[in-house]
Amino acid sequence: MNVLLHSTAATAGILKNLGVDNLYDWQKEVLHEIYRGSDIFLQQATGGGKSLVYQLPAAAEVGRALTIVISPLKALQADQVAKLKKSGIRAVALNGDLSDAERRRVLTDLPDTALLYLAPEQLWADDLRGALCRCHIERVVLDEAHILPQVELSFRKAYAAIGEFLSSLPVRPQIVACSATTTRRERKWIIQSLGMIEPVFFIYPMRRDNVHIEVKKIECPPKERGTDLESVMFHCVERELRRWNGEGAVIIYCPTVRRVKKLCKWLNGRDWATIRYTGKMSTKKRMQGQTAFLSGTAQIVVATNAFGLGIDKSDVRLVIHAGLPLTLSGYVQEIGRVGRDGKRGRCVLFYTGGDIKQNERILKKAGNEKAQKRGLRGLYALQKVLKSNKCIWHEVERYYGQKKGKRCGHCSHCLAKQT
Asked: Which of 265, 269, 277 is nearest to 313 (CA)?
């Protein structure tokens, strides 16, 4: 491995350029194994500093080795590349937004590049393959690795070919898989798919004590039988917005595009300035909405689960679910947007008695039989959390095979026991 990696002066200089004062102990542990050349599986909370463990070595290797980062979204790639360039680190993104001339320039300069960010759909492009022949690929990083097991649910099928791409390289690189949420079963699937060899696992606690979780079942009061449950839910959402102090940002997740449109219109009609975000919108409109939210121009976004990956905003104070997410994994990913700066945040999930059946119908139409079973396992895991009277964080930790900590004392289940 690279001598520069062990140079305190070189490392300190790179960290200073990146605006990092000190490494966390866990980052030092991971870096030690990266320097040794081990394959790595890293699970750490979103916003916890995972990127640094591969960016730091890559910056020290510039001109002699390339790190490829497979990242799902162009916005996420652009954000990372902009931060690295600002720090003087040679990083580029390769995607369909580049002109032919820009693409040629990126590929020509590849041997002198530290980090190449791209989506899996780019991996088999002939011009990229030709350019990679002139490079020494030191490592390949799979960011948001939890996406990989979802390929059978018809999401980003190009992810299924990443393992084949890695096998096709003339020299096997170091493989680093990063995620915030994976179960033991999913980790096994990812390792086999990527062909990782005896990976070193770094699985850190998922619990975040600054995040307070509430789950509430929506039911009509006896005197209001026949009232539309969706209308009741919308009023519950507005009540939560009134409790919010107006600082930071709010994400309201809805299970369908129809509900996103309806709730967004309803809230705007009641003087709540909201924007919407769904996968059905044009790329231009999605990017405009994302930029407005990240910049703080828009504080409240109403969205489907398409809004999540690449949303690196530290001051989200409230996440509301206006309906049940499809799976427990999806739910944990979405509440992971809250309180990344360490300040207190709240997550409130509203659901109805019919949500489980609705999600079952959706999942039974998604992908093949194996994919359907995987999706339904995630749904029933979420259902178990809702029905349980145990600490919600305990239930999440159990599902992900993590050691249970103390009862959080502030989730809706814990608070119910105190009354």
From this structure: 277
93 in Cβ contact with 118 (< 8 Å): yes
Check if the beta carbon of residue 200 is closer than 8 Å to that of residue 35: no
Of 203, 230, 265, at which residue does a domain stop? 203
Contacts 24+ apart (CB under 8 A), 257-263: 257/304, 259/230, 259/322, 259/323, 260/302, 260/303, 260/304, 262/230, 263/234, 263/237, 263/302, 263/322
Strands 274-277 and 300-303: parallel
- Give the chain's domain count: 2
pTM: 0.84
Describe the crossing of helices 369-387 and 328-335 by its angle, rounded to 10 degrees: 60
Radius of gyration from C-alpha coordinates of the chain? 22
Q: How confident is the model over 131-163, as pLDDT tens digits? A: 999 999 999 999 989 888 776 555 567 888 999
Q: In whole numbers, what is the pLDDT of the chain averaged over residues?
A: 90
Tell me the per-residue pLDDT of 316-367, one tens digit each, with 9 for 90 and over: 999 999 999 999 989 998 999 999 888 999 999 999 999 999 999 999 887 7
Strands 249-253, 300-303: pairing is parallel
- Report helix, strand or coil for 413: helix
- What are the tokens at 107? 């590929």
Distances (CA, A) of 409 to 21, 342, 388, 393, 412: 33, 18, 15, 10, 9
The answer on 226 and 284 residing in a single domain is: yes
Who has greater pLDDT, 220 or 13? Answer: 13
Q: Which domain holds residue 95?
A: 3-203
pLDDT of residue 285: 92
Distances (CA, A) of 227 to 161, 223, 230, 233, 404: 49, 10, 9, 11, 41
Domain termination residue (choose one: 170, 203, 236): 203
Q: Cα separations (Å) of 252 from 8, 95, 267, 291, 319?
A: 45, 30, 11, 17, 6
